[in-house]
Amino acid sequence: MSTLIKSLAALAVMAMLGIGTGLATGAAYAAEPQTKCPVMGYAINKKLHADHNGKRVYFCCPSCESEFKKNPEQYIKKLEEQGVELEKTPA
Questions:
Q1: How far apart are alpha carbons 61 and 64 in whole angstroms?
Q2: Mind listing the pLDDT tens digit for each residue in 10-39?
């Protein structure tokens, strides 16, 4: 009887781990286009942008573009952690 209980418990744990793995891949989340400035959080102006490592980042004002250029990786990471999919730099 205890073998049966242990087997069922192990099976339950494996089932939970399998479900958790599927969620961790991000399959349940859809990336969104950028709508807010990574520096100030205001609505972006598509005329103001900077390209960094093949990614295009938009800003609300010229001063935010200048601030971004001081540490672009920090702001790109922030956007991506928020589920934003940045546009690729045009060829």
A1: 6
A2: 656 556 655 544 444 444 567 899 999 999
Q: Where are the domains of the chain?
A: 1-29, 45-88
Angle between helices 62-70 and 72-81 in degrees, nearest 10: 100
Cite the DSSP H helix spans in the chain: 2-24, 62-70, 72-81
If one counts every other C-beta atom within 10 angstroms of the C-beta of residue 40, the result is 13
The SS3 assignment for 47 reads: strand
What values do phi and psi take at 49, rounded to 5? -150, 165
Q: What is the pLDDT of residues 44-60, one digit of tens each?
A: 999 999 999 999 999 99
Contact by Cβ (8 Å): 57, 86:
yes
